């Protein structure tokens, strides 16, 4: 069937590949309670040969039941009085059991027994069936339409009016057909099926074949009978019954046969009617894949039609039912706006995969589940060939290495791994076969064969295999013999491949060079395993190739050397000072270990010019080396040295290997002291790539793999705390939150952005996504939202979120449970929460998922990051407490192995690694002051705050900003350092007369430094201009430009922007030199809603000017300021009202205004009087005229300090400025007067003459609180500031 759930890939597809498994010397054995192995499942005896089933079904979507009748035609091969059929959970109408043909002389029904273990219904008759005779058996029964996504089941959805509705769909693989009708439910026992279904007339039905007749029953129901199928297995039967008003298909595309062009195949894509246009891409992939495989297999798809149907609830990724392929909606729907690069690729490969199955699996089926890989491995390999045809630029081979080879090699190195082919299976095992070994190792083995046989021979072999075994079943020996024949028996494929399919695991190949006169390679193979103390003597036939600097460009055509012995020696000619590398293109399935000297030569090459080594080999080096450190075969520090060259690496395969290695290292080092230093080290390696790729959407048509890589790069950079990354993610999220109907976050980045925003966000942010989810119809966006919500660090929200998966009528589907748990468990805190949740809800989870693959995934998800003995003991206690582990039994053992290996790795590696990482080596100059090389003279600032807010719950908003900073160069330097905080830099340019340019920029989060590097030194005394475009946050924390609000008497809420820069918040408002001594002039322009008024330090140069092409916005520009410190910058954008005195001051040339929310403006009369009189007093007292033309006194609803003396725009907490003659006391009156006087005094002391530097204490956030206390306490404030600022 099915692409496993995990293969769906989140939008962070690459980081999900990483959950690896450590390998190390294993000394302590922790017994896991393992139930005795279940007996193999019995096969249905071959006494009767099934030929034909006539199936009649009557589903009832009101009470979720169905009635059925089956007429089973068989031929007796060996005389017997018994009929064995598979049957589960059906209520058989005993009186209906009878042999209906031949009508006379047939055996009579006596009774039936049930064999629960084998799921057999064994029907006994009064006499023997006669050899060679054909009989018809009739059985009527009824059953329940399940809600567990198996058999015939109910799928739920909300229609376009958001009304809950249901449809019936099906999933028969592997053993669910027996829940729909009694049958011989084995893949090798093929028959012809004819299905009839009685349904209400508003419903349409689909099945494997076209409808043959539709008979109106005159009671509002219709009986639709489908054409008989070709001879096929039960597991690919399919049936869908859905409301015609909600579900339908796009117009069929006619695909002519390749062999027989008059055989026209109608290819259709189907799903929810209202979004059928989103199926256009899937439609193209469907028809192209069909064309490709018709040609590649040299055999036409034999049916008249092939429907690809997207249903809302589907357990697997997709299912290849003959002629009616069923998908999850994410597998088919494609909306350019919301679908990321990885999902587009997923759609392509999943459709190609299912189409490939129409031959491998449907036409020729595995004889038994034990050789499931014969179809799944094949389809997983073939999907890449078809995708390569459809999207030639996607570098399928590089993807194959990452997504298939890297991914199964983890699981296959565990002691619990299994051979890809197994003989015996018990019922639960059948479900557990749908794993990475079957899919990815299977595909890799097939790729290996096509590589050592050559594509042409390989293709010829499988064409013959398909042609000769059509409509029947096959074992792997059949495949070997067809491939050997195609190779003209020059090679025995069976002998080579048996070791690969009948043994678990794969080898590690150690290459020891002999240097000097006798140049040779000693090549040793040993099984690669977690348990190096365990001796195994397994051997493989290894197709071995190597290359050096001379042969690197023709590595593929190097002689193939077969290694089937433990050690083999070959002579070489490579010079001693040149490296050799093995396994070009990852031809063979093995890990490679080199001797120390050769490894050193490789590191040297990577450092000098890594591009001399092919991309896949670079990736393999990283992946192999990090796997080998877990066995102790390679030193951990050597592996870290290998990563050093990544600063220059830009390619998909090596980086994916590296991200995987880094993620796993983080998990292993969880809770240790060196984790932070290791993360810093990783971030340093990633930053050059981050700076190159950045946040702008990558052109997928030009650089597909970089587009795929981008989310991983951003996700890792943010995870390692890169400030710019986090700020960028957050500002994108806030912008969307402000205007929910317009989500401008590129599809590829949504999952990352949502995750970062939720991780550090509020309940309100979480609720925002939750609200979006309620009405989100696009399947891939639903996944983005789920991924985002799973990143919360709030325990209550985690539990709420997980509970929603199990609730009826929830916006979250149960199918997403394992993936959500996995994501929650990625943080240490989430891991604990997820683990607790699974333990507390085990019986519920078992009831839901005990029969499906999901249960094992759940255990894997919560235990993946267990690395301590405490966690191991908890896990063991839990495992011991549940005797029946259902389909998860293997996973329990596997998880225990993983945990033990992680514990051992930590014991051995943390000390040497700590020494290597050496935190003291990372320490740099941590002066808190800006360098004095470059200083500002003038800021020209434009900002646009967004205040068109409709949602009262909104907590944050954003603003756009552009600043041009005129600089004065005091010392030659090639860097400019200024401050930023909570600012997302969009663009940085330097405008200079000598064409000096910005090369890179970076952030030092600890010091709020924004460091800009230039291509050459700035000339002494020159005056370049720095241009910076950015997005800032309007937070509600009363610092920087901040968002404030008040409630009017009619309960409506008014919003405003206010500001508070002192001491170090100007850096939140604009990139600036945020030190008090670095004064400059400011020209400020504010673009704002025309219903608002903007006020700043200086007077406006005129009335607001309308913004061209936008009737609602105007620009207010202010006069150039006097030179002032950044901490004095002031801005208020509000719908406040002011009262004015235009004749203030000694020369009556100053305007004083007092402003507040409109309803309270009359309480300002007293403040205006005091403010006007005191300006005059101060001018006289100091004999210094006030240098500005106006001073505003503005009362804002939430202001952290009591008042702030911004030059020309003094901001007060409301209560400090209001005086109501009726309600205020005389002490209030005195307070108002005092605070105004003191703030006015500051216009001279502090503003005119500023401190050279803040007391160092002030830089500490904790001391800011102390400062607030000062400002509330007037006498000490005044004395403190006087002492400081004079
Ligand atoms: Zn498949």
From TrEMBL:
Co-factor remark: Binds 1 zinc ion per subunit.
KW Membrane (keyword) present: yes
Which cofactor(s) does the record list?
A: Zn(2+)
**Record's InterPro entries?**
Aminopeptidase_N-like_N, Aminopeptidase_N-like_N_sf, ERAP1-like_C_dom, M1_APN-typ, Peptidase_M1, Peptidase_M1_aminopeptidases, Peptidase_M1_dom, Peptidase_M4/M1_CTD_sf
Q: Which residues form a coiled coil?
A: none
| Residues with site note (Transition state stabilizer) | 439
What GO terms are given for molecular function?
A: metalloaminopeptidase activity; peptide binding; zinc ion binding
What is the protein name for this chain? Answer: Aminopeptidase
